[in-house]
Amino acid sequence: MGRVSKKSFKRSSRPRAKSMITDCEIQPLLNSELSRTNIADNGFIFKYDSENSDLENNKTPATQSKANELLYPYYLRSFSLDYDILNRPKFYRKLQPYIPLGDTITNEPYTQNSIITIFAIWNTIMGTSLLAMPWSVERAGLVMGLLLMFVIAALCLYTSNRILRVQVLHGNDTGEVAQLSKKLLGPWAEVIAKLFSFIILLGANIVYWILMSNFLYYSVGYVHDLLFGDENTGTFDFNTTNRTLAVLYLFIFVIIKSYSWGINMSAPTLGGLTDYSEFYKNTFPATSGMLTLSMFIHNIIITIMRNNENQKHNGRDLSIAFTLVLLTYLLIGITFYVCFPLAKSCIEDNFLNNFPRTDVFSIIARVFLFFQLLTVYPLISYMLRVQVFAALELSIYPSVLHVIALNCFVIFICILFAIFMPHIGTVIRFSGAICGFVYIYTLPTMLHLASQKRRNLLTFGSVIFHVSISLIGLANLIAQFFV
């Protein structure tokens, strides 16, 4: 390799550009290491010079090891990964923020006020579970469904707070759940945390693929009916395509439909009516499993709250965010369930499937959600790829063959589920119960007990209480196989 001339270390005379990337939409799916690759999470803003730097021209500097130290923080190098940006295709390298040799990283912390933090958590937790929320209420019954929503929201809020508390006492500026687990519990806990992060991402890929297939099928069917003059199709109103974001549109959609239906409920004592609603059903574990994933944010909660401007308000802001999430699920789930005009057992795990493909409002909702998922799916696949290759101690882009092989494997799994198990409710409840047992019910409680033990504050009552939470998660997981 040739040596780099001193000219290559000169800084450009043009104004320096700043780049800052934020990533709230996909953060619940990231593991601890990956979330820190986000520039905003690191608290750094990368400054860089002209694209005609030595890195862009594929000139390998003699001080390559020193360059890597400048390019990648210590917590990225700690996994023995080859983050050699020179070995990747040019188009791929341009996607990576980097710093030419001789440049510097400026420590400019990124902070946000409480309002932004609250809405970031709210937006991060909510996802495709919104579509299955009415089905989850039907699986448990009206009263039991309401009870489970409040109980699981409270448990998720409590365990999230435990993680933040342990981070304050034993963590550092870059620590996350996996690092805390390794520090307080041992390397085995770190491995488990990373492993179940894979499961979360794979489950998200499967759910997104099923939904995209569903939305595309119904949308194409609607166009087919328009072209061939189905008499039940109706007229498409192009003005409605100018409405709001997909999730907000779902709120409006549910409110309009529920208002047009009115309340359709009958007390269990009356019986025999098509709108008969049970207050309790033995299939309630399906609801608890789904709600566990619907309230999941634990693997990246430290990253989000670290950017909060006033750290003293972390507990308050987190509580407000969970309250907003709970109210959102109540609005979608309970409202749709109470007003649904047919037998409650007819409610699908994707409530849009309860509407004919000729329904204009449901078609618009599907189109919105299809393009939303279409843009998010590649990002989730990328995160999964990075984590898998990291676990195998490979570079982010080891070769085209590696990437194609992994992508084909993931897509193959998604297609199998879309063909043989096209039920997002089932996928969500199982992935929620499995990953929730580790990330919600077990790791936070074990971290809290380990912290108390180190500070000589461990009591018998605390052990019983927190072990009980873990047992609830275990029971929730086992019960999924009997529903």
Question: Which features characterize this protein?
Answer:
two-stranded antiparallel ribbon, 483 residues, 1% strand, 2 strands, 19 helices, mainly alpha, disordered N terminus, globular
Strand order of the largest sheet: 1-2
Helix-and-strand structural type: mainly alpha
The string of secondary-structure elements, in order, is EHHEHHHHHHHHHHHHHHHHH
How far apart, in Å, are the first and last alpha carbons? 63 Å
Please count the beta strands (DSSP E, at least 2 residues each).
Answer: 2
Instruction: Please state the average pLDDT score.
Output: 76
Largest β sheet strand count, sense and barrel closure: 2 strands, antiparallel
Share in β-strands: under 5%
Total helical segments: 19
Given as residue ranges, the uncertain stretches (5+ residues, pLDDT < 50) are 1-108, 231-243
Helix percent reads 55-70%
Nearest-angstrom radius of gyration?
Answer: 25 Å
Shape: globular
Structure description:
The chain has 483 residues and is mostly helical. Helix content is 59%, strand content 1%. The protein is built from 19 helices and two strands. The protein has helices at 32-35, 39-42, 64-71, 74-77, 90-93, 114-125, 129-140, 142-170, 177-184, 187-227, 246-261, 284-294, 301-306, 314-339, 360-391, 400-420, 424-439, 443-454, 460-479; strands at 17-19, 46-48. It has a two-stranded antiparallel sheet with strand order 1-2. It is globular, with a radius of gyration of 25 Å. The termini are far apart.
SSE map:
Elements: E1 17-19, H1 32-35, H2 39-42, E2 46-48, H3 64-71, H4 74-77, H5 90-93, H6 114-125, H7 129-140, H8 142-170, H9 177-184, H10 187-227, H11 246-261, H12 284-294, H13 301-306, H14 314-339, H15 360-391, H16 400-420, H17 424-439, H18 443-454, H19 460-479
Helix pairs in contact: 6-14, 7-8, 7-12, 7-14, 8-9, 8-12, 8-14, 8-18, 9-10, 9-18, 10-15, 10-16, 10-17, 11-14, 11-15, 12-17, 17-19
